[in-house]
């Protein structure tokens, strides 16, 4: 009996020790060993795409948002009232200077002119006979003067009728494009009533505003480039025509007018224009791809690829690391950003792979990943 108890105690001790050893290995020794291995191992370098900053020659520009306005624009209106007899244009078409646009009815004026013409013939005949009688001394000169007055009055009435008839033929004052007509044949129009809008759009004007600081860089004749949402792939060239004579009291801005050639009529008044004005002489600037810039509330920054020994003296000479550098970004053109300060020509900046790195990260530069990213975006 005692022997059984001893065997049982020995078995309990052996199995208890074995279980404790297994538990210690599984729950204490092994995790610590793995943690030591993982934390003690250096993090493998991340693969990024990078490109050196470069110097470019950029033309200084002033950017603004403008609105297109017609170089000439009027309402076509009659000087005299009347019934519309003919309309010689279609809505929206182009007309030439001197082209007949509208004819008002002249039936009444024609009848009055025939009547006055007949009276003039009689007046001229009476005047001729009276001149002969006065020359012979048979008739008093006062009667001759009365006949001349009658003749002149009739002639003035005829001239007035001719002027009214001429005003009932309405012509285009210059080459341009008409809008939608507001009248129809047979309708009555009063003096000054709008018949149609006529505008001259070649050239067309782009009016935009600049700050007082930029006003000193504006002068007549400077070249401008304008783009429009309607034609995203086309740039329209022009030049500064004039500037307003005062600063707006509300906006503290000055209005500038540029003239843009528009021979095909693609541009119409009212369009918004994105205007760039070339000002000053070209400048040499440091630029990087737009994808290299990380914008944040704390400031714009880039990841610069540097020798790892710059950040860690114990690093291997061939290793590369990341240095986060804050920069002052400037203008953006054709996918590149001007760096006003913070970078030098030749500094290699990360252009793809930003989400995997931070200050001090070890990296491998492989520019093929940028192509893969671009291909994946294209496929999507």
Question: Can you offer a commentary on this structure?
Answer:
The protein is of the alpha+beta class. The chain has 4 domains: 1-41; 46-57 and 283-379, conserved putative lor/sdh protein from methanococcus maripaludis s2 fold, CATH 2.40.420.20; 62-71 and 197-278, Beta Barrel (Elongation Factor Tu (Ef-tu), domain 3); 76-189, no CATH class. Helices cover 29% and strands 37% of the residues. It is built from 5 helices and 21 strands. The strands form 4 sheets. A 6-stranded antiparallel beta barrel has the order 3-10-13-12-11-14. It has a 5-stranded mixed beta sheet with strand order 16-17-21-1-20, covered by helices on one side. It has a 4-stranded antiparallel beta sheet with strand order 2-15-19-18, with no helix packed on it. Helix 2 (107-136) packs antiparallel against helix 3 (141-167).
Please outline the helices and strands.
Layout: H1 2-40, E1 46-52, E2 54-58, E3 61-76, E4 82-87, E5 94-95, E6 100-104, H2 107-136, H3 141-167, E7 169-171, E8 176-178, E9 188-189, E10 196-211, H4 212-215, E11 223-228, E12 231-243, E13 253-260, E14 272-278, E15 283-289, E16 301-307, E17 320-326, E18 328-333, E19 336-341, E20 348-352, E21 362-365, H5 368-379
Parallel strand pairs: 1-21
Antiparallel strand pairs: 1-20, 2-15, 3-10, 3-14, 4-6, 4-9, 5-8, 6-7, 8-10, 10-13, 11-12, 11-14, 12-13, 15-19, 16-17, 17-21, 18-19
């Amino acid at each position: 009996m005692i022997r059984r108890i001893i065997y049982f105690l020995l078995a309990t001790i052996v199995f208890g020790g074995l279980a404790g050893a297994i538990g210690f290995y599984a729950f204490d020794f092994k995790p610590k060993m793995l943690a030591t291995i993982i934390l003690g191992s250096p993090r493998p370098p991340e693969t990024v795409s990078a490109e050196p900053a470069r110097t470019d020659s950029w033309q200084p520009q002033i950017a603004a948002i403008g609105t297109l306005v017609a170089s000439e624009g009027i309402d076509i209106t009659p000087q005299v009232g009347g019934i519309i007899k003919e309309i010689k244009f279609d809505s929206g078409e182009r007309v030439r200077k001197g082209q007949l646009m509208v004819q008002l009815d002249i039936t009444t004026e024609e009848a009055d002119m025939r009547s006055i013409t007949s009276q003039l013939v009689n007046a001229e005949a009476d005047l001729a006979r009276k001149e002969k009688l006065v020359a012979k001394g048979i008739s008093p000169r006062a009667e001759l003067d009365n006949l001349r007055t009658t003749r002149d009055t009739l002639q003035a009435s005829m001239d007035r009728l001719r002027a009214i008839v001429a005003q009932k033929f309405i012509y285009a004052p210059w080459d341009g494009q008409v809008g939608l007509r507001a009248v129809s044949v047979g309708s009555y129009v009063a003096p000054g009533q709008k018949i149609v809008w006529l505008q001259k759009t070649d050239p067309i004007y782009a009016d935009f505003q600049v700050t007082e600081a930029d006003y000193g860089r504006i002068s007549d004749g400077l070249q401008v480039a304008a783009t429009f949402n309607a034609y995203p792939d086309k740039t329209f060239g022009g030049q500064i025509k004039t500037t307003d004579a005062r600063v707006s009291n509300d906006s503290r801005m000055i209005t500038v007018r540029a003239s843009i050639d528009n021979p095909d009529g693609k541009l119409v008044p009212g369009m918004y224009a994105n205007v760039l004005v070339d000002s000053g002489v070209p400048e040499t600037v440091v630029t990087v791809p737009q994808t290299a810039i990380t914008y944040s509330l704390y400031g714009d920054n880039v990841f610069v690829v540097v020798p790892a020994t710059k950040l860690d003296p114990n690093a291997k000479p061939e290793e590369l690391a990341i240095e986060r550098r804050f920069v002052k970004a400037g203008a953006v053109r054709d996918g590149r950003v001007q760096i006003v300060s913070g970078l030098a020509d030749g500094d290699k900046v990360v252009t793809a792979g930003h989400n995997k790195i931070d200050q001090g990260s070890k990296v491998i530069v492989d520019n093929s990943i940028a192509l893969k990213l671009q291909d994946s975006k294209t496929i999507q």
